[in-house]
Specification:
Blueprint (H helix, E strand, L loop, with lengths): L1 H25 L11 H10 L7 H35 L1 H35 L4 E6 L5 H10 L6 H10 L9 E6 L4 H9 L1
Antiparallel strand pairs: 1-2
Helix pairs in contact: 5-6
């Protein structure tokens, strides 16, 4: 047994020596990034499609971009003042626009009165729905939200399901019967099914 282990150890030692010799003497890519100078790295980086800038070039580019931004802001301000001056010179047109505005306002008032008469009808259509929810053991929250959506208690099952997940109500849902209405907020519904 000793002879076998000794032979195996000698074989590992020999293989290690051969690998070290191969790495140090025959490896052509032995240069690492630490050994390369900046001048040697630049062509390698450019081959990969990158651009290399000196610190002076970088500063000049950043200053130019800041100047472009301030120039565009100044142009926008100048255009705004030019528009104000143009509107000041067109006073006769103002009278005509006032007439059209008055006509449009009377149309809006008529439309508002129509909406006021139709809003009580909309309120009547939006009746509050009462529902008794029966939660059985092992029922997932997604099933509960889909039942609530089917019964008209909530509009969007996935939205309420996300609300339950975000506010950690999913694991707190209690089995049993719960009375819920369509007038309840997500918070109220979540509290009702977790008590």
């Amino acid at each position: 047994m000793k002879k076998t282990i000794r032979t195996f150890a000698i074989g590992l030692f020999t293989a290690g020596i051969i690998m070290v010799i191969g790495i140090f003497f025959f490896d052509s890519n032995s240069n690492t990034l630490d050994e390369l100078s900046a001048e040697e790295m630049i062509p390698l980086i450019k081959e990969d499609g990158y651009h290399v800038l000196t610190s002076d070039e970088y500063i000049s580019l950043s200053v130019k971009s800041e100047n472009i931004n301030t120039d565009s802001e100044e142009k926008a301000e100048n255009e705004a003042t030019d528009k104000k001056e143009v509107t000041k010179t067109k006073e006769p047109v103002k009278e005509e626009t006032e007439k059209t505005q008055a006509a449009n306002q009377s149309k809006k008032e008529k439309a508002e009165t129509k909406e006021e008469t139709s809003t009580p009808e909309k309120k009547q259509e939006e009746k509050i729905i009462n529902y008794t929810l029966n939660i059985e053991p092992g029922m997932p929250a997604s099933t509960i939200t889909s039942v609530l959506a089917d019964q008209g208690i909530i509009d969007d099952a996935s939205e309420f399901n996300n609300y339950l997940d975000e506010h950690d109500y999913t694991l707190k849902v209690r089995m049993g019967t719960h009375k819920v209405t369509s007038a309840m907020s997500f918070y109220e519904l979540a509290e009702a099914i977790t008590k």
